[in-house]
Structures are given as C-alpha cells and as structure tokens.
User: Fold this.
Amino acid sequence: MYGFGDLKIWNDLEIKSKLSWYYEVAMNKKPAKYLISRRIACDIDLKSTPINELWDCHEKLSDQFFDLWHNIKSGEIDIIDLQQPKISLMDLNVELVNRMLRSCNFCRWNCRVDRTLVDDDPSAKTGTCQLGEKSRVSSYFHHRGEELIFRGVLGSGTIFFTSCNLRCVFCQNGDISKDKDNGVVLTPSELSDVFILLREEGVHNINLVGGDPSVHLHTIINAINELDNHELRHINKIIKVKSDFYVSYPRSKQNSLYHNEFNVPILWNSNFFMSDQAFRILLTVVDVWLPDLKFHNKKCASRLSRTPWYFDTVSGFIKDLHDRGEDFSIRHLIMPNHLECCTFPILDWMTENIPRALINLMDQYHPDSYTNPNTREYNPRYKDINRKLNSNEINKVMKKADDNNINYKIITYN
Ligand code: SF4
Assistant:
C-alpha cells in the first residue's frame, strides 16, 4: 500500500536530510525522543530536592541525553540494548513541570501565578493565559491540511488545546484561542489515550497546537510520560472530542511500535513564545518543531499581538534549533502592508542566521477577529490588515525569497 515513505517529497535530499530524525521516527525506524529520555537515569530524590538543584540535574542529564540521541541517530546504539532505570529524565521532566505550574513560567510572560489554585477559586490570580491546572481540548483529528511532510497520507494527529498566550487581533482560531472554556477537560491519562488512538489509526505525528501548547506544558509532559503500549482506558470519553469520528480509520498496533514500545514523533506546533525552561524540557521530548515567525518589527508585534519581546524571543529559539541540528520547518504568515517591516527583514534574518532552513511562506491571510470589516468586532485601528494579499504582494515576497536563496518552494507548494 502507498504510504508515508513513498511520498515523492522525500526524494528531495535537502528535505530528507533536514527532517531525517522526524522521518525515521514517523516510519518507526527510530525511537521518539521521549523513549530515549526514559533511558537516562536520574539518581536524585525528586520530591525532596529543591527546584534549582533539579534544574542543575536536568542540565547534566540533558547533556547525556544529547550524546545518546546522537549515537542513536548515527545507528551506533539502539535503545533496545539499554535498561530503563527506575527514575529517568522523563520523571524529572514531569517533576519540573508540576512544580513550575505552582509559579508558572511556561512562557515568556513569566506570570509566576499558582495555577493549581485557579480552577477551584474564582478569586485566585491568573496569568495572561487565564488558565488553571486543567487543560481543555477543543478537538483532535487526522489533519489533512497541514504541510505534506506532516499530513502525509493518513494525516497529522492534531490536537487543539484552548487558550493562548498571545492576543493576535487577526487570530484565525479565535474560537479556540480566545475562549479558554471551549472544548472538554482532558486529564494527562485521557490525553495519552488520544495520542495512542491517533497513532494506531496511522497518523504520522502527534501535532500539539492551540491556541498554543506551551500553556499546557504540564498536561502534555505528563501525558507523554504515560505513553506505552497500553489498551485505551478512556475511549468512551475521548471519542466524543474526535471531530473526524465518522471516518473509519482501521486501527493497528503495528502502526505505533518501535520494538514493541509505543512510538510516535512529537510535533511542537507553536508561536514559540515560551520560556527558556520550557524549551529545555521540550528539547528532550520534541522530535520535530513547527514554529510561527510572524513579526520582525517590535511595534507590529505589540500592536497586532500585544506581545513585547516578540522577535528576540522567537528568533532566539529558532536559531538555537538550527544550531543544534534539530528538525524544524517555519511558518510565516504574509500580511498585507507588512512586507517592508516584517516579511522582508525576516527573510534577511533567515539568510544570515539560518541559511536554507525550511519555511512555508503562507499567502492565505484573510481578515478575521478584530480585522474583518464585515463583523461587529472590527476595529478600524487595524485597517492595514483588513484585506487579503494581492498578487503583487505575493510576487514580491516570492522574488525576495528567491533572491535570498530561501528554501521555501517545496514546503510552500506541497
Ligand atoms: S503559561 Fe504563560 S501566560 Fe499562562 S500563566 Fe504561565 S507564564 Fe503566564
């Protein structure tokens, strides 16, 4: 049967080499990073150790993780030859995110609120995302509209979490990002069942998105820690959230196994406005990254997303991914009247800092939320982006990308 590995896009050697880890995990030829993190022994008492010492330990174990990951990538070592320790780097990740939740610094806002108080006490202080401990999922399904490298032939297993840490006035997922109470509360255990169901139905990755996934870091890391070859425990509940439940995807354990262990690439589909600490944890569990890079200009980021420190934060993480040899592909949403201030400087930055990185230059911008003149929410302050792009703007961007030797065509047009 025609499958993911048969897609012609993998004949492009540059694409294949930049996404080689993701490809191998998707094909179950290599183990996902979380399976590697489970092989790194952690020999401190997690509950009694102060958080700064936990971070010191995390730094040390991350070094071991990267050494092991590189050896596994090159084929020198296989995880099947390694014992699973009683306490591992994954357990340390769980302990760290659970503690971070009590003084939340999952993202760059660094609100430092105790999110464990919020769900039961309406007067408790909330951060920018307004979330407590519970995570809600608005929907999940086999996404057939993502880039070909992600949607493959059976779709990208996409999970939409509610709420967000940005306030984009043009948000095209406003029903999810602006309504934190949308969707259904899923526990980590239920979420791990969603991962397993989707993968057994043949998806090529678990695509964590929102809103933004970073505000749900604790739920996601706990769910990943629960992934194993178990039978589904919550099918009656999770099936109600599955928006393509009416499509019959044959389930098979064989779709999901690396030497009898549950395996799936974790895809982080995010605005990248996360904290350094969140990034450190994610480096040990995320197999492929899909960052947005929206603005270059500070004033544009503040006015249109109410976000300070935008470009420095997001571009810093992207540069780090590039320098570390991680698998990633960027998305840039081209917006009308923002070529000179945002798109062109972003392309120049890419040429200078991350040459030949993969990017999807998205020309499908349409006015939404506060930028759509046909709605009551419309605010004329945003008239610069109250229309679609015209062909002249699109052509200018593609010409600039060509002049800059940007690697966009194969991702953008497939
Ligand atoms: S996730 Fe970000 S926005 Fe939400 S409370 Fe934590 S630091 Fe604040």
